[in-house]
Amino acid sequence: MSKELNWKSAASLVRGYRKKKFSPVEAVKASLAQIERHEPALNAMCGVHADEALAAARASEARWHKGEPIGPVDGVPTLVKDLLLVRGWKTLRGSRTVDPNQAWDTDAPCVARLRESGAILVGQTTTPEFGWKGVTDSPLTGITRNPWDVSKTPGGSSGGSSSAAAAGYAPLTLGTDGGGSIRIPAGFAGIFGHKPSFGRVPAFPLSPFGTVAHVGPMTRTVEDSALMMNVIAQPDARDWTSLPYDGRDYLAKLGKSIKGLRIAYSPTLGHAAVDPEIAKLVDKAVKVLEELGADVEETDPGFADPAPCFRTLWWSGARALLGKLPPEKKALLDPDLASVVEQSMAISLDDYQDAVKVRGGLGSQMRQFMEHYDLLVTPTLPIPAFEAGVLSPQSDGQAKWVNWTPFSYPFNLTQQPAASVPCGFTKAGLPAGLHIVGRMFDDMTVLRASHAYQAATDWLKRKPALVA
Hints:
The protein has 468 residues and is an alpha/beta fold. It has helices at 2-5, 10-18, 24-42, 50-65, 109-116, 159-166, 183-189, 222-232, 276-291, 307-322, 327-330, 335-344, 349-369, 400-403, 410-413, 443-456; strands at 45-48, 77-81, 120-125, 137-138, 142-143, 172-177, 192-195, 214-219, 262-265, 295-298, 375-379, 418-425, 431-438. Strand 9 (262-265), helix 9 and strand 10 (295-298) form a beta-alpha-beta unit. It is globular and about 60 Å long.
């Protein structure tokens, strides 16, 4: 039983605790054992806190024995991306430039809410340096690999979380998404990842990359992400950009039919080149949504590729974060990131303000487009996972990680909720993702459509052969 516990969803673990079928201690031991078995191959973790996790699990077990859990995820093994502060843990952000010898006495809001709800914090997942790119490797932690094929990347920047979730390390993982960093790795590693509406999950400290950066859940099941949203979408006064708390229960209508939902299907957003195998899998997934009763119309939103706008804003964030580092610190950076910082020095105030205007126009255009549709669906990514340890399958400068992610960053600019749900496998056995984008503030419909698709398909039954 203990070996199987690492594959159980958070929701099923909590149901089992309630019925005393198994305990949080057993679940945490199963999680730790799975990490120990497969970390040499995957390198998804940059910190495992076994003693602390087991002590917390024993406390949770005692609460469950009394029938007094302190929250909806009490006793559930949970992993945290190494960009999010955890009290007592060194959050080095994948960088050799961060001083480990400082006070680590703060929980990020999402971590604080999970801890208050009894989640068992097991360890930290890897990230590229400061989460800057769409794959996961860094000078500090090395290369993280995809459990479906260890020669491939699990995506990034939340690639440690995606690899860990796909490998059965823990049912709940936290990610961040400033240009696709939840959805890219969810798509490449065959898990579910949800980028909430901006501000729905409070953040502290705020990302140096500004108001494109979101915090959200990465899980194997949609139900677990909804469960996680109930916890992490609670308020925190430290984030002045956070949305007012609305008390929504993301589980309440998760199983509601999607019959009658108006869905715009854009296979390319009007400008992206998509691998034929990926395109075919996404087309098939959209047909499932139609069979479930959704009204699907193939149409493009009508905007030009906003990559230049995104790069100006993102590169400016890199400049603000790292541009004033002394030379000896800059020498420690990922060379490609150092090059981005160098490029950013040429961005003028006029360039930045022009990008802000373009972003505002895109946001307005999408708000108006979504007046006619409940959801927009696209591929998550135009390609399957490529070789681990490289920035891109293309060779067109440091901008190239943006160029192969055309479906994700536009919706960081617009701040809309968006998720990636697995929708099949290529002939080589690599996952593909269906990208579901909602109206601003309507995370519930994104989760509901994702859950309906998941329930109508069998991708959850498949596990990577390496770790099954």
